[in-house]
Amino acid sequence: MPRRSRLFSLSAWTRTYQRSLKAFAQAARAARPAPAKVAAPRRAAAVASAAAAAAAAGARRRPGRPAPARGEWLSGIAPGPAGARRYQLYIPPALGLRPGETLPLLVMLHGCGQTARDLAAATRMNRLAARERFLVLYPEQERVANAHGCWNWFERRNGKAEAEAATLLAAVDQVARRHPVDPSRVAVAGLSAGGSMAVLMAALYPQRFCAVAMHSGVAPGTAESAATALAAMNGRRAAHLPDPVAAPRKADAGAMANGSDGVALPPLLVVHGDADGVVSVRNAADTATLWAQALGARPGALRTLQRGRRYATRVTEFKARGRAVVVLREVVGLAHAWSGGAPRRPYSDPAGPDASALVWAFVARHFAKVR
Q: Which of 91, 139, 280, 318 could hold 72 in an S-S bridge, CB 3.0 to 4.6 Å?
């Protein structure tokens, strides 16, 4: 039995290695790295060329039927402390970049049992990116790193969570070097395990993100292993924040709130369904409260919002110096799924409020503050 298990592991590793080689070859063909000073103009020229071709194709279409916003879907692979991770990058069409212009980047992390393409299809974030002019990065977990395709946000006892967060950050850096990305306007969001990894990344590297969104996730630091992750998902573990990487000597709550002696945590949006049977909705309130305390923010009055026949949402804003730095949205009747996502997709519920629009509206407000 041990020999069979070992052979199975080797076989799985071989398949993953072959997939990585294939992804690397595709990435090399699709986006050859250029010197840092000319990478953005070259990409801008390529985007402009693709936009012209799309416009020409659109002109041949029947009047009244605009061409779909297909854009570019590029594959890549980034090495890091946790090993290599593949990713997909969406670049909208017809960007019309000015010389030296750079764009925001939204990092989207999938949940367990999903792939990068699954998350893109369920959330329809690319459609928003085409309309609002931002790039979307979809990293993908390797099954050899987690059999269920989950990001290892909970493996903090053995350091795997931190290594994976650093590897995802390496993917962000690689994309920023090769494409017209504004490093000061980067945000991260995710669903389920992806949401948990998103807030872990923001807690470890607060200076790297303008905003973070957690959909149906768990607060960072709530679990240290696979066994404690189950208790955390059930809302039976106390939440706490991990120390940021290379934290300053003075990093108390007051310093984090005003940014004088430490780096403030980025603003946080939490979206969670109160009918979630996989991750308890208690995690949403715990994460929001924990984040708000670190930022010195106080909760406002609870409001209930509803648009048309979509599920109602209970909204609590936590404000510091008159600014909402944490927003908690508990969706009534939503299970473990992306709210307002595409129909007939796993982990997607079209009956909920549009979480993609909510995420973009939230992060865009904070992108604007750094321009």
A: 91
